[in-house]
Specification:
Mean pLDDT: 87
Low-confidence stretches: 1-9
Largest sheet: none
Order of helices and strands: HHHHHHHHHHH
Oligomer: single chain
Number of strands: 0
Strand content: under 5%
Distance between the termini: 30 Å
């Protein structure tokens, strides 16, 4: 009885496991590099898209500017979630988590929640960067920019929702695939090659896929995409489904 009691008392609480995940995320050089890369790519994407339009003062251009300056944040949030989970399998830290917290739902939940928190940070930084980048471009071209415009606030709200969902989805995919190069390469192939093929070739199907749903959350001017609210719901549903499969695999297979 004493040994059982001492073993139970030595098992860390879920809060402590979450703290450990937060510490890992804060000290991860890879996560910091991904965050920096997301800001750089947001600037590149925004400038590249805005340089092709003639009327900066139009509402469609403003929607394009906010979409272009936020969409990269989602992709890098996904990568942050993927790397966080697959690195745990790659370097064996998941084994240590299971030794200290043998209930498998504990490290899985901590990883996914931790990824969501990291994704929210990406979303906040991405939203701030989007405003700064777009405002600077408009100012350089002597065009008025209002950060309180509904077209701006809708995109910012969308990225604050999409980034955590993408990061949580990435963490769940990591539990399913586990092999880091395969998980990262497969996810990028899906988002950058397979989904665009569906969106262009079969738009009625493509708009319901998770990548397109995430893009819809940025209030994209693309008329072929879903509106923001259904896009967010579809993305959340995909994340929930992937997380369910990840939990099932993690419970029944060896690490």
């Amino acid at each position: 009885m004493t040994s059982v009691s001492s073993r139970a008392s030595s098992t860390p609480s879920f809060a402590n496991v979450l703290k450990a995940e937060a510490l890992t995320a804060r000290t991860s050089a890879t996560t910091k590099l991904l965050l920096l890369a997301s800001v750089v790519m947001a600037a590149v994407s925004a400038v590249a898209n805005l340089s092709t339009v003639d009327d900066l003062a139009s509402d469609d251009t403003l929607r394009l500017a906010m979409h272009a300056s936020t969409v990269a944040t989602m992709i890098f949030s996904l990568l942050a979630g993927l790397v966080a989970t697959t690195a745990a399998f790659r370097f064996g830290s998941i084994d240590q988590r299971l030794l200290s917290a043998p209930v498998r739902s504990t490290p899985l939940a901590a990883k996914v929640i931790g990824a969501g928190a990291t994704g929210f940070v990406f979303g906040v930084v991405g939203a701030a960067a989007a405003v700064a980048i777009t405002a600077s471009y408009y100012s350089f071209n002597d065009v008025a920019f209002s950060a309180t415009s509904p077209l701006v606030t809708k995109a910012l709200l969308g990225i604050l929702i999409a980034a955590p969902l993408y990061a949580m989805g990435g963490a769940a995919i990591g539990f399913l695939v586990r092999n880091q190069p395969l998980a990262v390469g497969g996810s990028m192939a899906w988002l950058l090659v397979i989904e665009p093929t569906f969106i262009i070739g079969l738009p009625k199907v493509g708009k319901w896929l998770p990548g397109a749903a995430g893009v819809a959350l940025t209030n994209s001017p693309d008329p072929g995409l879903l509106a923001q609210v259904p896009g967010g719901l579809i993305l959340a549903l995909f994340v929930a489904v992937v997380l369910g499969f990840a939990a099932l695999r993690f419970r029944v297979t060896d690490v």
